[in-house]
Amino acid sequence: MTAPGVTAPGVLATAWLVARKDLTIEFRTRSAFLAAVTFALLAVVIFRFSWDPTAVNALDLAPGVLWTIFVFSGLLGLHRSFGVEQADRAVDALLAAPVSREAVFLGKALANLGFVTAVQCVTVPAVALFYDLPARGGLLPALLGVAVLAAVGLVAVGTLFSAMTVNTRLAELLLPMLALPFFVPIVTPAALATARLLAGRPLAEVAPMLRLLGSFDLVFLVACTLAFPFTLEE
Length: 234
Fold this sequence. Notes:
mainly alpha
């Protein structure tokens, strides 16, 4: 309930406030971001020096490397999404606030999207450098565009399961176990689109993968937003 004469913020305003809070906390500590970036760069280096260039072409290997790194580095950030609310039971304040839970979910998802996108902005140039990807005009922005588009679906699913597992004793194990099967419909078209972009295929061949990816994003975003209010108890 709100006090007399006080108007609760709307859904978008609430989502922005929640996202800004989470991003401010992460900006001050940088713990999850530095952990995710360190993991991503370490994985790029390990894949690079364990790879036999005479057996597998760099363009064939790079999509798998990119999406393996994106998925697991993203999970590091998604795990902390609701974990940050555990201190002093801050999650109780969110639940008691006179705002819709859908707005809380959208705010958490927006903050996670910012986190994952920041990691991707470091990882994509690193993979391009270590794997000697072709320097065609527009290739790097196109890869980042596919990565961001896929991040929307990954973040929607990951944020929902982060809320479901945060109060469990095995949250670090349950989150990937629950989320990874739902990541497959998103990662598959994203990896195919990445491979075709690296191979220099025309945009007409990439467009069906992007449409499929966008469809999954929309379905997961709507479904997870509607399901979120049932994952948290007062």
